[in-house]
């Protein structure tokens, strides 16, 4: 059997400092594998006998931060040398798409973000996205380490990179990022079967997820989706008659604004075409440009003068499509494919063409009303309505059985193989895929933390997570309750939750501002992992007491004291003699307390609760002395 070494210990790897160094892999059963770690100052070796299953593991002495080394492994017949090994702090990144979201997603709109991505002491490893419902994997089958100074920085997790950069500013310690996040994944897929069974959270039909079942369902969906797409293309009069061509006569079409997402023509699956003739100022003619049309539900292909400039097959990525040289006058045609019950252009998104030097500006602040007035930015919405016509009516596209939503799979194949990895801590950003059933999420997250701490056997390492940001699309109530469940998960030790309701985008599930989230996570890490004495998070309520004619709320994580930056509005729900939801003002009465004065004779009642910041996009009105925002909450009144 050929000597194999885990991809986690490979060229350019970053290994956790101050802990024994595990090196593992596969070789011929019964043979002896020797690993040697060499630095400029010393060399040390450790041997391992290969077990009957072909697996071996050698443990070498701990090294200090900044140590550079090589590791040579031999089984007597084959020798392999791992070069450019560096020691520092390793952070595991996990969750779903907002943690997975890579720098390339925001690089177009903030082109200078990576100008200083030249730190060879920041390294990263993307765990291959595989799942397995049947067995725990002993190791990863693939993967490699990259150095941010030279290797594909656009592929790094944006939160991970901003987090590492902030830690590098505060500490002279190399940082390694191991990214195991998967877009769309539920929390249950990151948990062990045993834990979910003990909680009664494993589906009764979980046994159906055999390899044969998964392969069959994936094949059936691929075939059904391909047949659906062929049927739509064949029936599309727009394709057959080339509605994308600039000289096509659309004078008898209807008109609509891109912002009219509620139009009845978009409330059914099928294909809708939109066309617009655009003339730009002379100074923009011939310059490179980029179409920035936000997100679209569901799929699209956009043409400029009959030639495609970009295509996206699902709703979440921003439509940032390059134009090599902008013509003076041209026709944009959009083939919009609605695959579910509704579709169209995401409410609240702007539709811009960015030209020439403006491509070098940071335009990530989508809420800034002045963006469209900048030189080099064409506000397409200000140019008036588009011509549109529906070309195809279709049934709803067959649904994929999205296995990333199912329990255990990612835990078995993406987390268990990391168990020998030395860690400083974990960064977690997840919850969006669980928000439709928010109740009980706190118990799941606390169980996940316990699961992982047991698996890695490195004590109660810091677990730092992002609370859901501001967001207004869809049903907001589930979003609010999921946020509060995340707050409740702070009951487990050595955790911190960063608030983000001022850092999202009301119209985007994937907000661009990952820097704010990452730097708040770094502030939490400063306290939980590096011995800092600042607060790891914003004010968090610990109790609500009823006193005569008032309520009193006590907060933790206030630093030197609570600070109000706006009106402190609290809602009493189900109060006696009050409307079901009654709003009152609060006032700071002590370093860690707020009082809510009530009308004389008013009592909250036995089943009453108090809510604060209970909105999809609450105003930031309360913070601690470190400027960290208070969490939204709903709590019973004692």
Describe what this molecule looks like in 3D:
It comes from Bifidobacterium amazonense. It holds the Pfam family SASA. Residues 89-194, 422-510 form the Sialate O-acetylesterase domain. This is Sialate O-acetylesterase domain-containing protein. Keywords: Hydrolase. With 638 residues, the chain is an alpha+beta fold. It folds into three domains: 4-201 and 406-528, Rossmann fold (3-Layer(aba) Sandwich), CATH 3.40.50.1110; 242-393, Galactose-binding domain-like (Jelly Rolls); 540-636, Immunoglobulin-like, CATH 2.60.40. 17% of the residues lie in helices and 30% in strands. It contains ten helices and 35 strands. Strands 2, 4, 5, 7, 8, 9, 10, 11, 24, 25 and 26 form an eleven-stranded mixed β-sheet that branches. β16 (299-304) and β17 form a beta hairpin. α3 packs across α10. The longest helix has 25 residues, at 211-235. The N and C termini lie far apart (66 Å). The model has no long low-confidence stretch (mean pLDDT 94).
Name the features.
single chain, alpha+beta, 638 residues, Jelly Rolls, 11-stranded mixed beta sheet, Rossmann fold, Immunoglobulin-like, 3 domains, 17% helix
Present the secondary structure layout.
Layout: E1 4-5, E2 14-16, E3 21-26, E4 32-38, E5 43-49, E6 55-60, E7 68-74, E8 79-95, H1 97-100, H2 103-107, E9 122-126, E10 145-147, H3 158-170, E11 175-179, H4 193-199, H5 211-235, H6 237-240, E12 254-256, E13 270-279, E14 289-292, E15 296-297, E16 299-304, E17 307-312, E18 320-323, E19 329-338, E20 344-345, E21 352-355, E22 377-379, E23 386-393, H7 409-415, E24 425-429, H8 441-456, E25 463-466, H9 476-488, E26 495-498, H10 514-528, E27 540-547, E28 550-556, E29 563-564, E30 569-573, E31 581-590, E32 593-597, E33 609-612, E34 622-623, E35 633-636
Parallel strand pairs: 2-8, 8-11, 8-24, 9-11, 24-25, 25-26
Antiparallel strand pairs: 1-3, 3-6, 4-5, 4-7, 7-8, 9-10, 12-23, 13-19, 13-23, 14-18, 14-21, 15-20, 16-17, 16-19, 21-22, 27-28, 28-32, 29-34, 30-31, 30-33, 31-32, 33-35
């Amino acid at each position: 059997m050929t000597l194999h070494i885990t991809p986690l210990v490979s060229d350019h790897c970053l290994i956790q400092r101050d802990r024994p160094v595990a090196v593992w892999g596969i070789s011929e059963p019964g043979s002896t594998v020797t690993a040697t770690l060499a630095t400029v100052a010393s060399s040390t070796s450790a041997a391992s006998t290969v077990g009957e299953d072909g697996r071996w593991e050698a443990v070498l002495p701990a090294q200090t931060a900044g140590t550079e080394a090589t590791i040579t492994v031999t089984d007597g017949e084959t020798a392999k040398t791992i070069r450019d090994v560096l020691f520092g702090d390793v952070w595991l990144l996990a969750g779903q798409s907002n943690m997975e979201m890579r720098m390339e997603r925001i690089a177009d709109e903030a082109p200078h973000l990576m100008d200083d991505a030249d730190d060879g002491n920041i390294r990263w490893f993307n765990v291959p996205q595989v799942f397995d419902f049947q067995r725990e994997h002993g190791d990863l089958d693939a993967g490699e380490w990259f150095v941010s100074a030279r290797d594909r920085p656009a592929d790094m997790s944006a939160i991970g990179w901003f987090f590492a950069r902030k830690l590098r500013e505060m500490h002279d310690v190399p940082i390694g990022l191991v990214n195991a996040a998967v877009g769309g994944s539920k929390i249950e897929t990151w948990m062990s079967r045993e834990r979910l069974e003990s909680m009664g959270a494993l589906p009764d039909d979980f046994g159906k997820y055999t390899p044969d079942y998964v392969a069959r369902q994936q094949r059936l969906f691929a075939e059904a989706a391909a047949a659906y797409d062929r049927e739509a293309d064949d029936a599309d009069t727009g394709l057959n008659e080339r509605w994308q061509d600039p000289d096509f006569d659309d004078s008898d079409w209807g008109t609509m604004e891109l912002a009219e997402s509620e139009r009845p023509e978009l409330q059914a699956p099928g294909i809708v075409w939109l066309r617009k003739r655009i003339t730009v100022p002379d100074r923009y003619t011939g310059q490179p440009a980029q179409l920035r049309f936000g997100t679209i539900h569901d799929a699209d292909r956009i043409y400029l003068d009959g030639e495609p400039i970009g295509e996206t097959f699902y709703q979440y990525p921003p439509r940032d499509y390059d134009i090599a040289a902008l013509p003076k006058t041209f026709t944009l045609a959009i083939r919009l494919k609605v695959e579910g019950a509704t579709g169209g252009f995401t409410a609240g998104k702007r539709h811009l063409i960015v030209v020439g030097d403006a491509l070098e500006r940071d335009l990530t602040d989508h809420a800034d009303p002045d963006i469209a007035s900048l030189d080099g930015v064409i506000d397409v919405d200000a140019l008036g309505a588009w011509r549109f016509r529906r070309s195809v009516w279709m049934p709803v596209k067959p649904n994929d059985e999205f296995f990333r939503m199912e329990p255990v799979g990612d835990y078995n194949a993406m987390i268990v193989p990391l168990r020998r990895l030395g860690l400083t801590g974990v960064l977690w950003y997840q919850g969006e895929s669980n928000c439709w059933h928010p109740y009980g999420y706190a118990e799941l997250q606390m169980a996940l933390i316990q699961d992982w701490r047991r698996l890695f056997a490195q004590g109660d390492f810091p677990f730092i997570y992002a609370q859901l940001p501001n967001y207004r699309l869809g049903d907001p109530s589930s979003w609010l309750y999921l946020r509060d469940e995340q707050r409740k998960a702070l009951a487990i030790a050595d955790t911190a939750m960063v608030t983000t309701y001022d850092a999202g985008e009301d119209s985007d599930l994937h907000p661009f501002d990952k820097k704010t989230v990452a730097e708040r996570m770094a502030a939490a890490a400063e306290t939980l992992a590096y011995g800092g004495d600042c607060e790891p998070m914003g004010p968090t309520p610990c109790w609500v007491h009823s006193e005569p004619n008032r309520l009193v709320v006590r907060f933790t994580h206030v630093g030197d004291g609570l600070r109000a930056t706006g009106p402190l509005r609290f809602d009493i729900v189900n109060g006696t003699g009050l409307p079901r939801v009654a709003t009152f003002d609060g006032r700071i009465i002590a370093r860690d307390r707020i009082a809510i004065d009530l009308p004389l004779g008013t009592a909250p009642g036995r089943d009453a609760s108090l809510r604060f910041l209970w909105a999809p996009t609450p105003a930031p009105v309360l913070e601690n002395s470190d400027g960290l925002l208070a969490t939204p909450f709903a709590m019973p009144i004692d």
